[in-house]
Amino acid sequence: MNYKYLGTIVAPRGYNGEMKVSDLQFGLISINENTKVRIGYSLNFSREFTLKKWRQTNKSAKVELLGIRSDKDVYDLIESGIFVNEDDISDNKNPIISSHKLIGYKAFNYDNDDLYGIVEDVIDNPAHPILMINNSKSLIPIPNVKEFVKMTDNAKQAIYIKILDGLDDLGF
After folding, report:
1. Distance between CA atoms of 105 and 133, rounded to whole angstroms?
2. What is the 3-state secondary structure (H, E, C) of the chain?
3. What is the C-alpha separation between 35 and 26, in angstroms, rounded?
4. Can you tell me the distance from the alpha carbon of 17 to that of 96, in angstroms, rounded to the nearest whole number?
C-alpha cells in the first residue's frame, strides 16, 4: 500500500470526537466512510483507525474516526498526521498520482516550456517525495510539492516545474 500524508490533526471540533485537520496536502478530495487510515507522527509510528466521516473545505477538513468519542480522545491525537492509501483518495478534477509513477516523465520549465530534464528517480522523504531530475549535467533534487511542481500532464507524461536561480548548483 502506498500511503499519502493528508494533513495534521490540530484541534477538537465539537464534543463528540470530531477533529479539525489543517496543513492539507491536496485540493478538495473525497474519502469514503469505513476507509482504513493511519494516524501518527509519521507513517512508521502510526496506528490504524477507521474513518467515520471526512468533510473538507479549501483550507481545512473535519474528520471523525470510529472509537474516538470525546475531546480527551482527540487531545491524544493532536499534532498527529493522517495517512491514507492513495487508492482511497478521490479527486475528480486532478487525479492523484503516485510520485513513483512520475519516473520517466519529462520535466519542463513552467515559465517558458523548455525541456529541463527527465524524472529519473523518486526519493521517499517524510516531509514529501523528492523527484530526481536528470538534466544531462547532473541529478537535480526537486521537492514534489505545489510550490515547485506546478502542473502534471499525465496524457503527455510531463511535469512543469518552477526553476529557481541556483537550482542547477544543487545537482550531484
Report:
1. 9
2. CCEEEEEEEEEECCCCCCEEEECCCCCCCECCCCCEEEEECCHHHEEEEEEEEEEECCCCEEEEECCCCCHHHHHCCCCCEEEEEHHHCECCCCCCCCHHHHCCCEEEECCCCCEEEEEEEEECCCCCCEEEEECCCCEEEEECCCCCEEEEECCCCEEEECCCCCHHHHCC
3. 18
4. 29
- Entry pTM: 0.56
pLDDT tens string 79-116? 999 999 988 887 645 445 567 788 999 999 998 999 99
The span from the CA of 149 to the CA of 139, in Å, is: 16
Residue 35 and residue 3: Cα distance in Å, rounded? Answer: 12
How far apart CA 11 and CA 3 sit, in angstroms, is: 23
